[in-house]
């Protein structure tokens, strides 16, 4: 019968929705929808005009605001067809029939009339499917469908674990028959239901019921081979993962990242890593934190790292430069606009602190606070995000030690800071002490930066941080 | 009265009715009064969705009471850019929510009460509900001049709107909800509900502005609690049930399975902004640049909250043509959203010639464009 249908009806979707001849997981969605039909004497392909039913309150006309289906889609009874509005009331119109939408009588913003046709639906024939009693179940919601789907309003009893199992497998509890006390739904009921749904390639049977497939041999525990065992081992039915791939266009923050990183590919990167002993800096910060707090500023380690980087850039200005398109000219930037990579809810964003060369550590901390709160609120402006000349990425706040950061054009260098770990180290006297160790990973543009320059810059930066008092000598 | 812990094992709101409580007769009546313990607009809207989708309202009607921390709530088919000052909302950290019912835009804060009347589809009757509210108000303060208009508003002193209405109808159930201004911040209300965006053309449902007044201004002895209590009293009387309010925690997944997903969906950009009916913007940017003012005509079509078409009429060669086309190409298909646009345009700047003049022109244009969003 199935094959006959393929030849006589042109729409393949029609077939999938009717029988559980599923060939891929996406059709599982359809397999739930078509259950039992109203018995009515209609032949295959009859077009029925579904009229807009009474809205109530004596309303005669409404405005069509949104269509949930389009011509050619198949619908089940109770699927949402459209949203109409009348005088502050938004009404979800659901289908009375199972079938295929053949014509929409209105466009968006048209006035629709109560009692006049809304859509034309080609009704499925009830041939080939046993005409059961006039009970139609509501289809389950899949996560990406509109939540206007109506659900039969009966409450289901089930433990949270059972509910979670149902939700993970995209099952509507209202569709599961509960065999526990008070019709409570048990785990076995969910598994039974699932087993019925995993119809693989099945021939159409005269009955509407679907035969559960035999479990695959690898999912069945090996124990049954042991014939000496007397105790029957319960065979767990396979849990079917009904998730499906989701494809969406690359937009927004991801698109921005694609553009930046594609441009960064053109830069030949080299890496240089080192270990910094922050024991003294940790102590210094502890002392200064309350002072900053009194002034209303939260002091992290970043302001120190940033200021030290700027002092280093004064000695090695090539790291604060930019190479032009044709690699003909190097521009040494006067301002140290040091970028700080930030992880917001939507993705990576790199605002920069302007003119660090003339800022105090406190100024930097204060500005970082401002950028961080704007960043998390999604309100950073264009000036905050442009003009950067050098970048630091504090990936250590999330975790990790060494990294291989990618340079953000038009810059030529970037540093990634790992997490601060307490590790044993030897001091000058050969004694072991508790050291606060952080790793830094630099990447630089090898077209104009050489290893020696990077190493010397890193050593200088390291020396400022390992001995914060030395920063005082060179502060401008 | 707070839900007993044992009830947490009992799933479904119906269980609240079936389980008798100490000192309280189980209600055989056809109604239930519930109140949300949360002030989060998304959580509360999710409760409405949940009840609409999951409760059998044939036998039992529900009155849901809720209040929100500052939020602007737009109707299902409205355009947020047309209805409110999004910039101000972002600055003041006021939430924006789109409800599923129709109607216009309202401002909520803790000085405003929301009432939702859930019934079966057949019993949907807004006028009755509003008359109940008016009756309750008059019972509390007989001298109050309040009445229901044929637009389903409640007016104070024949002039000031104190309540607006909206409704949602499904296949088997329906709800009618309304606001009630007790002591809301009128200053914030009027400033956030004024849209600064010019040149918008849309078929979205427009709001009808109205003069509003708080009941508190009419009678300073009134509080939200008193008003809620009066309304509940009237409701239980009419439905012949005990005066009992069940508290609901909208984060309780055990009581309301699936509620957290509903809450999350209401917060997605796709729902709040993406559901805006197609609209177009036709405006002129007045950019002050180097002592003169440039008039730049901008035309954009926005569908599902994303820029479908974008035309910026710049003076010739003001920006290198390659860069201009990159800008337009980048904007097309991306969200009509300042945050995302900022990320995109600043990225584009990284890969173009590092020329200060170019950068300042670019920043000027982009900042002006972002102001439109």
Description:
The complex is a heterodimer of chains A (476) and B (373). Chain A is of the alpha+beta class and 476 residues long. Chain A has helices at 2-8, 12-18, 27-33, 160-168, 187-197, 252-264, 279-294, 302-315, 361-377, 382-385, 451-466, 469-474; strands at 46-51, 61-67, 74-75, 80-86, 89-94, 99-104, 111-113, 117-123, 269-277, 321-323, 330-332, 338-340, 342-344, 347-349, 352-353, 390-393, 413-417, 421-426, 432-445. In chain A, helix 8 packs across helix 9 and helix 8 packs across helix 11. The radius of gyration of chain A is 34 Å and the shape is elongated. With 373 residues, chain B is of the alpha+beta class. Chain B folds into two domains: 30-273, 2-Layer Sandwich (BirA Bifunctional Protein, domain 2), CATH 3.30.930.10; 279-372, CO dehydrogenase flavoprotein, C-terminal domain (Enolase-like, domain 1, 2-Layer Sandwich). Helix content of chain B is 33%, strand content 25%. Chain B has helices at residues 14-18, 41-54, 80-83, 86-91, 126-140, 186-192, 215-218, 224-239, 259-267, 269-272, 321-331, 338-350, 356-371, and strands at residues 31-36, 61-66, 71-74, 95-98, 106-108, 112-120, 146-148, 154-156, 160-163, 165-169, 173-181, 200-202, 245-248, 279-289, 292-303, 306-313. Chain B is elongated and about 75 Å long. Mean pLDDT of chain B is 88; it is low at 1-12 and 16-28. At the A-B interface, strand 4, strand 5, helix 4, helix 6 and helix 10 of A face helix 2, strand 10, helix 9, helix 12 and helix 13 of B. Strand 5 (89-94) of chain A pairs parallel with strand 10 of chain B. Chain A: Pfam families: 2-oxoacid_dh (PF00198), Biotin_lipoyl (PF00364), E3_binding (PF02817). Chain A: Its main location: mitochondrion. Chain A: Its EC number is 2.3.1.-.
């Amino acid at each position: 019968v199935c094959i006959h249908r393929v030849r006589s009806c042109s729409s393949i979707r029609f077939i999938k929705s009717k029988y559980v001849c599923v060939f891929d997981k996406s059709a599982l969605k359809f397999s739930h929808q078509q259950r039992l039909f109203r018995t009515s004497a209609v032949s295959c392909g009859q077009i029925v005009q579904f009229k807009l039913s009474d809205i109530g309150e004596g309303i005669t006309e409404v405005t069509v605001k949104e269509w949930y289906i389009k011509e050619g889609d198949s619908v089940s009874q109770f699927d949402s067809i459209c949203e109409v509005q009348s005088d502050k009331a938004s009404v979800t119109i659901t289908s009375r029939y199972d079938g295929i939408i053949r014509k929409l009588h209105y466009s968006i913003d048209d006035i629709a009339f109560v009692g006049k046709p809304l859509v034309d639906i080609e009704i499925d024939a009830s041939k080939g499917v046993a005409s059961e009693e006039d009970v139609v179940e509501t289809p389950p919601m899949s996560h990406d469908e509109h939540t206007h789907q109506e659900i039969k309003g009966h409450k289901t009893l089930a433990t949270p674990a059972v509910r979670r199992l149902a939700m993970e497998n995209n099952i509507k509890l209202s569709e599961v028959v509960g065999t526990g006390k008070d019709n409570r739904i048990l785990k076995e009921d969910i598994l039974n239901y699932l087993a019925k749904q995993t119809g693989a390639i099945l021939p159409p049977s005269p009955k509407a019921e679907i035969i559960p497939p035999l479990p695959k041999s690898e999912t069945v525990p090996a124990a049954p081979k042991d014939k000496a065992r007397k105790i029957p081992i319960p065979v767990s039915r396979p849990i079917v993962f009904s998730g499906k791939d989701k494809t969406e266009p690359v937009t927004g923050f991801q698109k921005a990242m694609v553009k930046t990183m594609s441009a960064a590919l053109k830069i030949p990167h080299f890496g240089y890593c080192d270990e910094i002993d922050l024991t003294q800096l940790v102590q210094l910060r502890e002392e200064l934190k309350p002072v900053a707090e009194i002034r209303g500023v939260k002091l992290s380690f970043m302001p120190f790292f940033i200021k030290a980087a700027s002092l280093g850039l004064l000695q090695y200005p090539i790291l604060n430069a930019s190479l032009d398109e044709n690699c003909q000219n190097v521009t040494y930037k006067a301002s140290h606009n040091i970028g700080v990579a930030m992880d917001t809810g939507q993705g990576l964003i790199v605002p920069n602190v302007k003119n660090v060369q003339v800022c105090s550590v406190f100024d930097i901390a204060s500005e970082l606070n401002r950028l961080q709160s704007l960043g998390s609120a999604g309100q950073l402006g264009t000036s905050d995000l442009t003009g950067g000349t050098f970048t630091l990425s504090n990936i250590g706040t999330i975790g990790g030690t060494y990294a291989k950061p990618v340079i953000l054009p038009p810059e030529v260098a970037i540093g990634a800071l790992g997490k601060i770990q307490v590790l044993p180290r030897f001091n000058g006297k050969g004694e072991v002490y508790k050291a606060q160790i952080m790793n830094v990973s630099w990447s630089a543009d090898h077209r104009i930066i050489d290893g020696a320059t990077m190493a010397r810059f890193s050593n200088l930066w390291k020396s400022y941080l390992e001995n914060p008092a030395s920063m005082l000598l060179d502060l401008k | 009265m707070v839900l007993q812990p044992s009830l947490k094992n009992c799933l479904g709101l119906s269980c609240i009715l079936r389980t008798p409580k100490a000192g309280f007769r189980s209600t055989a009546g056809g109604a239930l009064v519930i109140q949300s313990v949360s002030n989060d607009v998304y959580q509360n809207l999710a409760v409405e969705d949940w009840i609409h989708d999951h409760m059998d309202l044939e036998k039992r009607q529900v009155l849901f009471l809720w209040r929100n921390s500052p939020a602007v709530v737009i109707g299902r088919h409205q355009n947020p850019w047309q209805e409110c000052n999004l910039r101000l909302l972002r600055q003041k950290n006021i939430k924006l929510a789109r409800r599923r019912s129709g109607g216009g835009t309202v401002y909520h804060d803790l000085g405003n009460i929301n009432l939702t009347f859930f019934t079966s589809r057949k019993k949907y009757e807004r006028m009755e509900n509003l008359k109940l509210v008016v009756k309750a108000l008059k019972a509390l303060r007989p001298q109050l001049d309040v009445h229901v208009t044929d637009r389903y508003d409640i007016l104070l002193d024949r002039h000031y709107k104190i309540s607006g209405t909206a409704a949602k109808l499904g296949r088997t159930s329906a709800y009618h909800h309304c606001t009630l201004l007790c002591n809301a911040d009128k200053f914030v209300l009027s400033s956030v509900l004024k849209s600064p965006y010019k040149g918008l053309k849309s078929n979205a449902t427009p709001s009808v502005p109205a003069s509003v007044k708080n009941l508190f201004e009419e009678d300073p002895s009134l509080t939200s609690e008193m008003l809620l209590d009066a309304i509940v009293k009237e409701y239980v009387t009419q439905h012949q049930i005990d005066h009992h309010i069940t508290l609901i925690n909208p984060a309780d997944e055990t009581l309301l399975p699936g509620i957290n997903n509903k809450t999350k969906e209401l917060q997605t950009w796709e729902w709040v902004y993406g559901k805006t009916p197609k609209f177009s913007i036709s405006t002129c940017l007045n950019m002050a640049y180097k002592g003169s003012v440039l008039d730049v005509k901008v035309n954009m079509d926005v569908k599902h909250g994303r820029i479908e078409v974008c035309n910026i009429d710049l003076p010739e060669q003001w920006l290198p043509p390659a860069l201009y086309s990159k800008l337009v190409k980048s904007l097309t298909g991306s969200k009509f959203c300042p945050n995302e646009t900022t990320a995109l345009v600043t990225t584009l700047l990284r890969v173009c010639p590092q020329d200060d003049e170019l950068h300042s022109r670019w920043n000027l244009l982009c900042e002006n464009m972002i102001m439109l969003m």
